Amino acid sequence: MLPTYSSSGSKVVPRHHSGGYAASNGYPRNKDFKFDISPHRGDDFQLETVRYYDLSNVQGTARGWEREERILLCVPLREAEAHLPMFFSHLHNFTYPHHLIDLAFLVSDSTDRTLEVLTEGLEGLQADEAPGMSYGEISIIEKDFGQTVNQDAESRHGFAAQASRRKLMAQARNWLLTAALRPYHSWVYWRDVDVETAPFTILEDLMRHNKDVIVPISGQGIDKDTDVWRPLPEWLGGEQPYDLNSWQESETALALADTLDEDAVIVEGYAEYATWRPHLAYLRDPYGDPDMEMEIDGVGGVSILAKARVFRYGVHFPAFSFEKHAETEGFGKMARLMDFSVVGLPHYTIWHLYEPSEMEAEKRAAEEEEKRQQEMEKKIQEEFSFGDAKSQWEKDKEAASSMAKEKEKQGADSAEQPRKSGRPSREVEEVSHGVDT
User: Fold this and answer.
1) Residue 295, strand partner residues
2) 82-88: which pairs have CB atoms within 8 A and are 24 or more residues apart?
3) Confidence class of residue 415 from pLDDT cuts 50, 70 and 90?
4) Which of 111, 146, 321, 386 has the greatest number of C-beta atoms within 10 Å?
């Protein structure tokens, strides 16, 4: 079960909770708490425990599961109710020891049941009696950032919304990280909630490279925020890259950056910014070595594994224009600037949930409507035997037509027979009878 923080039985601390927290500063004031860390504490203040952490032991290694290195799994959520069941199926399947993974969620700017579904899913996950299923510490954080861009593909990925949207996304990531990162975490793993399929061993697979920052395959697609391929319907060719945010810097892009305003944010995949950067997406080979590495400067945010020390040194997700980039791409640039290793795996593929554009959605809706009409007509024909009646009518019509043609043929044969036998026709006989011999 998740820890209970209020007497109402809720597993999530509600906003503006007044039962145990001061309304002004959030410090515990309730006498039931062991610690009173209010700046206005009284004489009864006691510090029971002093914890000592040696951060040299949490640097992150290539085989962290053997050294019991803890991972902080961070998941930003917004209007994510529909995707959470799929996400929890992934949580069940991770092969990295679950007790070494702490979960942290930030729910922001949501009007659906994201928070309720998340809480229910976590309670079910922690109550699972299967060996090794329960996770470590779980944090749920609520914070709105005023994000007003709709979550549909057309709105989220329109060029005009990119700069402001990504700056707010950077704020959300930073709030989540700073609230959840503990001194005992060796790694931080960022994961989008709408990843459809990924190897169960992804944490170990990425960790084995022992890089400061590492991401799976990059790609090009409708969603320009991540570097992940996605399966598509057959009528769209079956698959296409999903994101262009993992890339190597180019001289063209650097020259472009020099011409832009101070607050400008370059985003990939738009005609407005032709950067000519090499993208991981275009290097994908389905038969390539999944362990092949490529140094990159920009980073996509769907699946990032980073050593916790990267953040402790001050690297973050810029919520402003940092070298003309923001959020995960700015994070990659900042990490490189501070001499951390940043690599991508162009042949290691995870699949993102298919997000149709408005045009694709209309096409699919038209196809589904046509299919529905065909199925309805077929059902009506089967129920009322219209198909059999029509078939029998066609058979009768053909039979009648054949009989008529046969009679015409017989009549023609009868008229032709006298000529063949040498006998004159009736008209000839009548004329002959009228001649005076």
Assistant:
1) 343
2) 82/112, 83/193, 83/194, 83/353, 84/114, 84/117, 84/118, 84/121, 84/193, 85/117, 85/121, 86/193, 86/194, 86/196, 86/353, 87/121, 87/193, 87/194, 87/195, 88/121, 88/124, 88/125
3) low
4) 321
